[in-house]
Amino acid sequence: MDILEILLTTGFWAATLRIATPLIFGTLGELICERAGVLNLGIEGIMTMGAMAGWMWVYQGGDLWGGLAFAAFIGMLFGLLHSGFTVYLGLSQHVTGIGITLLASSLSYFVFRMLLPDATTPPKIEPFQPYAVPLLSDLPVLGPSVFTQTPMTYLALICVVVIWYGLNRTPVGLAVRMAGEHPLAVEAQGIDVLAVRTGAVMVGSALMSVGGAFLTMSAFDAFYFGMVNGRGWICVALVIFASWRPGKALLGALLFAGIDALQVRVQQVSGAAIPYQFFLMAPYVLSILAMVVMARRAAYPKALLAPFRRGDRA
Amino acid sequence: MRLELRESPPIWLAGLAPVLAVAAALVLCAGLIVWTGESVLEAYALLVKGAVGSRFALAETLTRATPLILTGLAAAVAFRAKLWNIGGEGQLYMGALAATWLGTGALDLPAFLLIPLLLVAGALAGGSVLIVPALIKNKLRVDEVVTTLLLNFIILLFVNYLLEGPLKDPMSLGWPQAAPIVDEGILPKILAKSRLHLGFVIAIVAAIAIWLVMRFTVWGYEIKAVGLNARGSAFAGINVNGTIIRTALISGGLAGMAGVGEVIGLKGYLTLDLSPGFGYTGIAVAMLAQLHPIGVVVSAFFLAGIYVGADSMGRAVNIPTYLADVLVASSVLAVLVSVMLVRFRIRRG
User: Cα separation of A187 and A210, whole Å?
Assistant: First the structure.
C-alpha cells in the first residue's frame, strides 16, 4: 500500500478531522488572545485542566454538554487569572504563561488524584457518540466518514466561522484587533483596553479548555496523566503558521492533522524499518518547520507582549 | 490608584519578596489540604520533617537540589538576556546522552580525566541543542519559547529510540536502559550512607562561577544589557546576536551538566525517567531566585525540600504528592506579584 492509497481511504479523512479538532479549538483560542496583544502560554495547562474538568463533571453524573460548559467556565477562570497578571499588573507574559501552565496542570492532577485516590486503571465515561449529518453523510466516497463525527468536531468548525465573523465583521472584533495593534487608539475611542484584552483572554482560554475536553470526552473516554502531550505548544506554533487568521488556522490544523494521520498509517505499513519514535516526532518537527517557513511573512500583532498602562505615552 | 516606579527599592524589601511569595503560596495550598480533610499544620510539619528532619532527609534534599541548581542556573542566565529557554529538560537529556556515549567504555581514562571530560561533553551537547533555537531567533525572529519547548519532546523521543535500540544494554533484562557508566566515570559520594555525590559541589562551584561572570565580566554585563534593552545595546556597540549565542551555550551547557551529574553521580546509567521534570522545575527555581545565581542555590534547596518533603508527607497522610507541584507553581506566580510590589509603590489618586 502506498501513500496514494492511504489518502484514498475514508478512515484517513475521518482521522484527520478527529486529530484536528482539539488543535482547531486550541489554535482559535490562542489566536484570539494574541490578536488582543496577549501571548497565552498557559494553553498547555489550561487544556489539561479542561480535559480533567469536563471529564470529571461527566464522571460525577453530569451530562456531556454540561461538562463542556463546565470546562469552558474553568478555562475562563484561568484566563481571568492570566489577564489579572499580564493585563492589569503588566507582568511578563512569558513567565506568567509558564506559571499558569505549571499551576493548571499540577492542579488538575491533584484534583484527579483527590477525587479518585485509588484508581489504578483509569475509570471511563460514556463519551460523545458520532452523529451522522443527514443528507451529507449519504454522499458517496467521503460522505460517510467525514460527516459522521462527534458533535464537538462540528462545534469546532462552527467556531471557525463564528470567530472569523466576530473578529472581522463586528465592532467587538475590531476593538479586539485594535487592542493588539494600537491600544492607544482604542483608548482614544473611549474603550477600556484592559477590559477588551481581559475579555479576549477569557474567551480564548475557554476555547483552549474545550479543546482539552475533546480529548477526554470525545476522542477517548478517560483522563490520563500527560495526555495533552504538547498539543498546546503545537497550537502556539499553528497560530504563527496561520498568520493570526481563523480561516488559515483551520487549514493549518487540518494540514497538520492530515500529516499526523498519514504518519500513523505509514508507520503500520513500514513495519519496523523505521523506528516508531521518529514517526512520533513528526508533529513537533513539523511545528518548528512551520514556524521557520512562515517566519519571514509573520505579521505579529504590533502590541503583542506589550503591557498597556493607562496614561503612558506610546 | 496607580503604580509608581521606586527609584531604588530597599535591599531588605527585595530579599523579602520571595519569602512573602512562598508564604502566600503556602496559605493558598492550605485550602487544598483542608479539602483533603487532613490538618494543615500537621501536613506542613510532616513536609518539613520529611525535607530536613533527619540526616537522611537532609541528604536526600541536597541530592535532589543538585540538578535543580544547574537547571535553575541555566534558566537564570538565559532569562537575564531575555532568551526564553524552556528547553532545559531536553538539554539535560542531551547531556546525559553524551555522558552515556563516552562513559560506558568508549574511553579508557583514569577518573581524574574521564569525569571532567564527561562534564564538558555533556555541557557541549546541552549547549549545542540550544544553539538551534537561538540561531532561528536571531535570523528569523521565531519565538524561542515554542521551539525550545517542542525540542524537549523531540529529544525525549530520540532518547527513547536510542534506549530501545542502539544504546540498549543487552544485560538489562528487557528494560529500556543504557549500559552502566564505567567505574572511573562515577562521581564519588561525599557523605557516607547517603546518595549525596560530588555533583552537589560541582553545582555550587558552577553557581559561584556564574555569579562572578555575571557580576564582574564584560560577558555578564553584555548578557544583562541585551536582556534589558537589546536595541540600546546594539547602539552601544554590543554584538547582540553574538551575545544571545554565547548565552545559549552557557545556559544549555549548564542544563547538560545537570544531566551528566544525574547519570554519573546518582543513577549510574541512563533511563527515560532520569529526570522528573528537572528542566521545567529549574524555571521555577530561577524565578524564585529572581534570576540571581547565588539565590538559585537557596531556592533550589527550598524547592528540592518541598518535593522530598511532599513525598514523605504523601506516604504518611492521605494527601496527593502533586501538592508539591501546586505549591511550586503558585510560588512562581506569587513571586511575580511580590517582585512587582517591590519595584513599584502604590499611590492613591
Answer: 32
Amino acid at A72: A
Restricting to B residues 43-72, those with a Cβ less than 8 Å away from any Cβ of A are none
Nearest to A247 by CA among A188, A168, A172, A192: A168
Q: Which pLDDT value is given to residue B141?
A: 84
- Chain A positions in Cβ-Cβ contact with residue B325 (cut-off 8 Å): 102, 105-106, 109-110
User: Which residues on A lie below 8 Å from B326 (Cβ)?
Assistant: 103, 106-107, 110
Q: What is the mean pLDDT of residues B208-233?
A: 95
Q: Under a CB-based contact definition with an 8 Å cutoff, are residues B194 and B186 in contact?
A: no
Q: Are B262 and B85 in contact (CB under 8 A)?
A: no
Interface of A with B in 145-174 (CB under 8 A): none
Cα(B61)–Cα(A181) distance, integer angstroms: 48
Which ranges of chain B does DSSP label H, i.e. alpha helix? Answer: 11-36, 40-52, 55-80, 88-103, 111-140, 144-164, 199-216, 218-228, 230-235, 240-261, 278-288, 293-316, 323-343
CA angle A200, A201, A203 (to 5 degrees): 65
* Contact (Cβ atoms closer than 8 angstroms) between residue B288 and residue B78: no
CB distance B336–A240 less than 8 Å? no
**How confident is residue A271, by pLDDT bands cut at 50, 70 and 90?**
low
Could you give the CA distance from residue A241 to residue B206 in angstroms, rounded to a whole number? 39
Q: Please, are residues A57 and B305 in contact by the beta-carbon 8 Å criterion?
A: no
Give the percent of chain B with pLDDT over 90.
76
Mean per-residue pLDDT, A56-78: 96
Residues in B touching A231 (Cβ below 8 Å) = none
Partner-chain residue, chosen from A89, A113, A295, that has the shortest CB–CB distance to B142: A295
CA–CA min distance B121, chain A (Å): 25
CATH number for domain A3-115+150-297, candidates 3.10.450, 2.40.10, 1.10.10, 1.10.3470: 1.10.3470
Give mean pLDDT, residues B53-76: 96
pTM, entire model = 0.93
B334: its cell numbers: 506569587
